[in-house]
Amino acid sequence: MTERRRRRSTRKRRVERAAPSIESRASTASQAAARGLLTAAERDLKQIILDIHDGPVQDIFGALSQIHLLRLRPEMQVGDGSIMLGRIAASLQRALTEIRNFIGAFRPPEFERRAIGAILEGLVVQHEEMTGHPVDFEATDELPEVSLPLKIALYRILQEALANASRHGGGTRSRVTLALREGDLSLEVRDFGKGFDVKRVLKTESDVGVSGGHFGLRGMRDRVEIMNGTLDIESGPGGTCVTVRLPLA
């Protein structure tokens, strides 16, 4: 074998050895992203179960307890019984309303067919109807068409940010801004509530769990990391501002 052929053969073997390494890194990155997505989905499911247990399940259990009491004590069906029936009806109505809200919150909003601005504006309107809290929504006109994963990520992040504002922030008004900034989609969600200690909440894994009261922050952070974006949370006595930037590519 000539010297030239030996050099070619050596270069070929080097390329063949390098190729699996590149594929391996790509596979590892894909697996990490998939694990992160599954973790976020699992966390969302746990939150849904917790909310259902603390909301409609408790109302239905209370209504059933009062019905059981009326059956055991027939004398209460007259007089005080009408008051108790009113409470039962109110509990069941609350449970029905919350169940409808859950269905509405997780119904697919035709991500493929609608533009990102219309999708997020629809979520804002839904939030206003569910909570009675007004939300100022502003989106720039020159928003491009974005991928399906990006639409879903922004939708779920905004959903969680608005839910936290109503559930924990204590404010009654929010502002949402969607804009294109330096090739990234920027989503800003600002409420005017009591705020919270961001460093303390995000310091450890346990602090952002169920007991910390900010269960959705980890889900938001995971979604942003999967999409190679950035998440910034500023909070104080005047309220909380969540800013997310996700690359279009």
How is this structure best described in words?
By secondary structure, the protein is of the alpha+beta class. The chain folds into 2 domains: 1-107; 114-249, Histidine kinase-like ATPase, C-terminal domain (Heat Shock Protein 90). Helix content is 60%, strand content 15%. It has 6 helices and 5 strands. The chain has helices spanning 3-72, 80-105, 116-131, 148-169, 198-202, 216-226; strands spanning 135-139, 174-181, 184-191, 230-236, 239-247. It has a 5-stranded mixed beta sheet, with helices on one face. α4 (148-169) links the parallel β1 and β2 (174-181). It is elongated and about 70 Å long.
- CATH topology-level fold name of the largest domain: Heat Shock Protein 90
Output the CATH homologous superfamily of the largest domain: Histidine kinase-like ATPase, C-terminal domain
Report the major sheet: 5 strands, mixed
Q: Helix count, per DSSP? A: 6
- N-to-C SSE string, H for helix and E for strand: HHHEHEEHHEE
Number of strand segments:
5
